[in-house]
Amino acid sequence: MDDSPPNRYRLDTASSATVNLPDGRTLGYAQYGLLTGLAVFYLHGLPGSRLEGALFDAPAITPLARIISIDRPGYGLSSPQPNRTILDHAKDVDYLAKHLNLDSYAVLGISGGGPYALACAAALPADKLKAVLIICGLGPPEIGKKGMDWWHWIGFTIGFRFFPGACRWLFSRETLGRLDLTDQERFDRFQQEWSKARSKAHPKDVAALDDPDLMRWLVRNYREAHQQGLNVGFVPDGKLITTDFGFQIKDIRSDLPIHLWYGKHDTHAPQSHGEGIAARLGPNARLRIENETHGSLTWNCRVRALEDLLEAM
Q1: Mean pLDDT, residues 91-96
Q2: Which of 79, 82, 269, 307 is buried most deeply by CB count within 10 Å?
Q3: CATH of the domain at 136
Q4: Is residue 4 part of a domain?
Q5: 3-class DSSP state for residue 29?
Q6: In this predicted model, what pLDDT tens digit does every residue of 175-218 receive, in sequence order?
Q7: Using the 8-state DSSP alphabet, how is residue 156 labeled?
Q8: Where is the AB hydrolase-1 domain (predicted)?
Q9: What's the pLDDT tens digit per position in 231-268?
Q10: What is the domain range of residue 242?
Q11: Tally of helices (H runs) and strands (E runs) in the chain
């Protein structure tokens, strides 16, 4: 992969840094986009890493904001945090905001980062947190699983909660989870698998998955996500977001703008989750349903969604 022409999505770690937290842990993060722009904390998916922030960096798009993308515990450069809660990550975000001397900021959570964005909405200081954006984010377990495909339904009902070892093993055998292979080998295998599956894929996903630049970025992101092992990042993360969040969405302050973007054809974090979150938030929620899938919503709508977030700040 290193011999390929320059990628539209950054694959490097030049913008990465760490900060030491009060409890002795290390928190990894990377900064992308317009570094003099409005600050937006990016909370990655399940699995994921701080490298996801490259979606909002040049030359992927024209940068609109200062994207501060954080590794959750056990991912990338961040230390594991045994027995953590979803609300604990909001404390990490708060500490990093103080470390960076930010007067105000927003939070953007994608997919598995959605629960953590809600936690930030519930816990971060009202004078600092100005707006929240959730793109295809998972909601709390009580919303249900209507619209999920069978694979995600099993994983988010019984898989992570009762069979975490099986989840770890299954994912470690998928191409993107095969860290015994080089990045080039995983890229080649993924391309071969996609060529066989392409005819059955949703048309919205074809353009994205046909893009070799995006595939190289995904391969790199997954390696960073799992460099400490699936047992310390991915598996605990999955269990956390499928159990009680530790707070009620309805108690989030009513003056905080929260924008929710969901895909009509999303079978991972379906439309029903956006509707369920919006119903619990009340009038401060801004729900949009786009004609997209889980993946295509991010690739196709990230600029418009970010523009809405910045306007709300």
Answers
A1: 98
A2: 269
A3: 3.40.50.1820
A4: no
A5: strand
A6: 999 989 999 999 999 999 999 999 999 999 998 889 999 999 99
A7: I
A8: 40-142
A9: 999 999 999 999 999 999 999 999 999 999 999 999 99
A10: 16-312
A11: 11, 8
Query: Phi and psi dihedrals of 184, rounded to 5?
Result: -65, -40
Strand partners, 153: none
How far apart are alpha carbons 204 and 47 in whole angstroms?
22
Q: Which residue has the tokens 């707070």?
A: 247
Tell me the per-residue pLDDT of 95-136, one tens digit each, with 9 for 90 and over: 999 999 999 999 999 999 999 999 999 999 999 999 999 999
- Please indicate, yes or no, whether the overall pTM of this predicted structure exceeds 0.85: yes
Number of domains present in the structure of the chain: 1
The CA angle 5-208-309, to the nearest 5 degrees, is 100
In total, the chain counts a number of residues equal to: 313
Asked, for residue 6, whether it belongs to a domain, the answer is no
Q: Is residue 119 part of a domain?
A: yes
Q: Which amino acid is residue 19, in one-letter code?
A: V
- Interatomic CA distance for residues 42 and 33, integer angstroms: 12
CA distance 49 to 219: 12
C-alpha 206/C-alpha 254 separation (Å) is 39
Give how far Cα 223 sits from Cα of 49, 60, 193, 220, 257, Å.
Answer: 9, 20, 18, 5, 34
